Amino acid sequence: MFETHQFNETLDKEFLMENYDTQEYLVEVFGDFLALMPEEIQEIRAGQAEGDKDKVVKKIHAISSAVGFVGGTELSDQMKRFEVKAKNDPDFDITNEESTALINQLDAFIGIIKEEHEQLS
């Protein structure tokens, strides 16, 4: 079992322990997440570059749950708050610092999952 694994502090270890009963299952979930994320992040960055708020918000919405499912509960919550803010403010600039910072956090989070995946595999 992976109870003794020292997860990155960004991850919600309690959530992972409650929801994944074997290390093999968690490795599979991490692998599936990593397979999907590069394209998703690329589309978010493209939407931001185009100034396409709807595209960015839809992608953030689409992946926020996936981020939570791999232990990024705080980041997932932040993404959901971002989505609500962007949707409710017609003047929200999707190219602003807040948007860029969130996308950079997503990139960093994917790196963390990649490291965890490698350590657990």
Mind sketching the topology for me?
Elements: H1 13-19, H2 23-50, H3 53-69, H4 73-88, H5 97-120
Helix pairs in contact: 2-3, 2-5, 3-4, 4-5
Task: Name some characteristics of this structure.
phosphoprotein, 121 residues, elongated, 0% strand, single chain, mainly alpha
What would you say this structure looks like, in words?
The chain is elongated, with a radius of gyration of 15 Å. The chain starts with 12 loop residues before the first helix and ends with a helix. The protein has 121 residues and is mainly alpha-helical. It has helices at residues 13-19, 23-50, 53-69, 73-88, 97-120. The chain contains 5 helices and no strands. The mean pLDDT is 95. Helix 2 (23-50) packs antiparallel against helix 3, helix 2 (23-50) runs antiparallel to helix 5 (97-120) and helix 4 (73-88) runs antiparallel to helix 5.
